[in-house]
Amino acid sequence: MIIKKIFALAGLTLLVSSCAKNEVPGQSVENGTLCEVSSWRHDDVAAKCKPGQKVGYFPETFGNEQIPVIFAAVNCDLRYTVALTNGAVTCIYGPITPSKADSADGASADKH
C-alpha cells in the first residue's frame, strides 16, 4: 500500500512539473533575445534566426494584411503563442521545410 502511494505521488509530481514548464519536447525556447526581420521569406529569416528563438517580423512597408499571416505560417512554431497584427508578428521561430514548388509559389505572393 505504501509503495502504491509513493508511485502515485511520484507520478503526480512528474505530471505537475512537466505542465509547469510549458515546453515542447525536443526544442528549447530562447526568450532572452529577439531576432528582428523585415522579410517574410523563409530563406531570409533562416539566415538571421535560430529555431526556438523569439522572432519579430516588422516589415518596412505596409499594405498587404495577408503578409503577416503568411510570415506566421512559414516561420512560426504554431505550438506556441503568436502575437499578430495587420502589420507585424512576434512568435517563436520554428520554420517549415519548403519544397521547391512552395518556393516558386511564395515568390508570386509578394507581387499581389
Shape descriptor reads elongated
Number of helices: 4
Number of strands: 4
Distance between the termini: 68 Å
Biggest β-sheet: count, sense, barrel? 4 strands, mixed
Which structural category do the helix and sheet elements fall into? alpha+beta
Low-confidence segments, ≥5 residues, pLDDT <50? 5-22
The succession of helices and strands, N to C, reads: HEHEHEEH
Oligomer: single chain
Average pLDDT, to the nearest integer?
76
Q: Strand order of the main beta sheet, please? A: 1-2-4-3
> Which band does the percent of strand residues land in?
15-25%
Question: Which percent bin holds the helix content?
Answer: 40-55%
Radius of gyration: 19 Å
Work out the count of structural domains: 1
Characterise the protein shown here.
The structure is a single chain. The protein is an alpha+beta fold and 112 residues long. The protein is elongated, with a radius of gyration of 19 Å. It is 41% helix and 17% strand. Helix 2 (42-48) links the parallel strand 1 and strand 2 (53-57). Strands 1-2-4-3 form a 4-stranded mixed β-sheet, covered by helices on one side. Mean pLDDT is 76; it is low at 5-22.
